[in-house]
Specification:
Order of helices and strands: EEEEEEEEEHEE
Strand content: over 45%
Radius of gyration: 13 Å
Helix content: under 10%
Shape: globular
Oligomer: single chain
Distance between the termini: 40 Å
Number of strands: 11
Length: 124
């Protein structure tokens, strides 16, 4: 069992930056691939980024590639999402997720565990 708590969301202007954090509790955090998904109003939840258990592999969706960076610190049981050059279309609730297995699998099938989400709003 893994519990996830996101933080760091908020209101930011176009072109600004935010850093989301996700703190995990439970055993064997370093065995889980971690990822971020987001859901905008009226839209389905979509994949944003994923990172392997060791941090050696990362994946990004095309809309965020080159602007967002996912990272993790297994000594702190945490995963992060650095978001730069934010756009209004990045506005969404961002969810942290965990899955035993590969980051590639998490990207395709999402996670088994989810946080409660944190709101990111980009104003123009």
């Amino acid at each position: 069992q893994v519990q996830l708590v996101e933080s760091g969301g908020g209101l930011v202007q176009v072109g600004g930056s935010l850093r989301l954090s996700c703190a995990a509790s439970g055993r064997s955090f370093s065995n889980y691939a971690m990822g971020w998904f987001r859901q905008a109003p009226g839209k389905e939840r979509e994949f944003v980024a994923a990172i392997s258990a060791t941090g050696g592999s990362t994946y990004y969706s095309d809309p965020v590639k080159g602007r967002f960076t996912i990272s993790r610190d297994n000594t702190k049981n945490s995963v992060y999402l650095q978001m730069n050059s934010l756009k209004p279309e990045d506005t969404a609730v961002y969810y942290c997720t965990a899955r035993a297995g590969t980051a590639s699998l998490l990207r395709r099938q999402s996670g088994n565990y989810w946080g409660q989400g944190t709101q990111v709003t980009v104003s123009s």
